[in-house]
Specification:
Low-confidence stretches: 308-312, 541-570
Radius of gyration: 31 Å
Strand content: 15-25%
Number of strands: 18
Length: about 650
Amino acid sequence: MISVEGLKVEFGVKPLFHDVSFVINQRDRIALVGKNGAGKSTLLKILCGMQQPTEGVVSIPNDTTMGYLPQVMKLVDDTTVREEARKAFADNTKMAERLERMNRELSERTDYETEEYMDLVQRYTEAHERYQMMGAEGYEAEIERTLVGLGFERTDFERPTKEFSGGWRMRIELAKILLRKPDVLLLDEPTNHLDIESIQWLEQFLATSSSAVVLVSHDRAFINNVTNRTMEISCGQVTDYRVKYDEYVELRKERREQQLRAYENQQKEIADIKQFVERFRYKATKAIQVQQRLRQLEKMVPIEIDEVDNSALRLKFPPCLRSGDYPIICDEVSKSYNHLVFEHVNLTIKRGEKVAFVGKNGEGKSTLVKCIMGEIPFEGNLKIGHNVQIGYFAQNQAQLLDESLTVFDTIDRVATGDIRLRINDILGAFMFGGEASEKKVKFLSGGERSRLAMIKLLLEPVNLLILDEPTNHLDMPSKDVLKEAIKAFDGTAIIVSHDREFLDGLVSKVYEFGGGKVREYLGGIYDWINKAPLQLPPTGGVPNGAEKKVANSIPQELKANPSVESAAGALSYAERKELLKKKSRLEKSIKEVEKKIETLETRIAELDAILCTPEGASDMTVVTEYTSTKRLIDQETDRWAQLSEELETIEL
């Protein structure tokens, strides 16, 4: 489909990459990987024709359509969400207008027997067939399905796009690209502004799409679920691994070891040649051999290897003071602006726990964090535990850095003890190696400032970390360093993130925000996903909103015949209705049990606090209540498991 031959790109003295050749075939799913600055985004721009290479040829058939989503784009704010998405079907609209004109002409003309009239009928028939193949008027349902899949509510469709944040407007642009169904999709960090539900919907969409996909992403779970081929830009070359990302990581380790061995052998050979030349440079009898060695040295092509892999760096937090047993306790916390954000939030976070705040954007995750930080007012009781020292990473954290300092000095001022000897290693792990460490903060990009603010936070002695989308500007090795540091952290951590791979193995409890409620799930991120299956909007089949049309198209005699209805589906209407009732009853019972467990666990936390005092420890009434409450929690948990299993057996 797309052929790239002898590609070379130069911005300075050293080429960004050179002598690059590869082919993109139909239905290829390619992950473009490499460290920041390697040229991933540049290569996408060259493929879509927005940038020209210094040398080389990119061959694309004339009828091949391309859809390109950059990381940043200029957005128009003069339409509603639906109208903006409808622009993806400009060809359908033009075709509909053309058909309307032809239809009007057919109704006005009376020369039915003439050759011109028959020609018009033929052209109308062909155009109408083509219009039907393009989706005809069905694209409205497709627009709705795609927008809902990317996280929009149906009430958002008629809102002006200017009312939405930049992240939500990027979702609209992504929806337009997906709706056009191009032959090749070029996506640069498509998950940056998506929540977990939308990311999973996009995974399903791309898996069933007939388009070839080339994407740049630092979301490991996403590229593992979408791609089947990995192309790495490294040392100015593109290496093609025809495997998924996880398999590529293993193959790359082997390749790097081979690179290192070859590099070491070459360096030894160079040293031997130089030693020979220095030893016999002024001996006339060895002049010929010296000249031969010098020519050999000139012809030698230096073996390049990647910079030292800092992903194995172990970053340890500095010692911190011990906090109270319960750093955060929320009791009936509520927050509203012009609308309800959340209400009746009851949660207790114990010392040492690592918890995740998840849910759709706009459901209140960052709002609750701001309540904890005391930045905004709220209703209810929110208690910060004894001796709690909070380290907070927010999206605007980068703006608080001292612009007059260099990168190195910024970290040097907060580093203490042995960590000061490893500042360069730490900076390298977060992509500030070499000369980058001497850049002044005022010259850093937004992403670079965010990474620097993250390093600064990691070196401060705090016992409660609150991280709001900490991985947005980190590549995979840097995310691994951060993840290992948080796992080894002996304090408490609250992490707001949509990165499943980052949260996996890191958190032991998940708080889901949605519908004005905050629900607690014990276990890791995938336990939450499995316990609370995400209601992903369909990516194919009968479009949302089209069910009524389909139902109306069924002849009345078929609707009236139960045997025909049963043959069309696995269940009759009556059976399906009964199962829906049973499912509703079970879901209601499960919610009641979950609420009861939450109440009991809150009481256990209160009793724990009482038992920690000398008076409480000797009070047998408290001990008895503690034992009986624990027993009730076990009983309710067993009941919850039984109801959940029963719910899973229902198949509609």
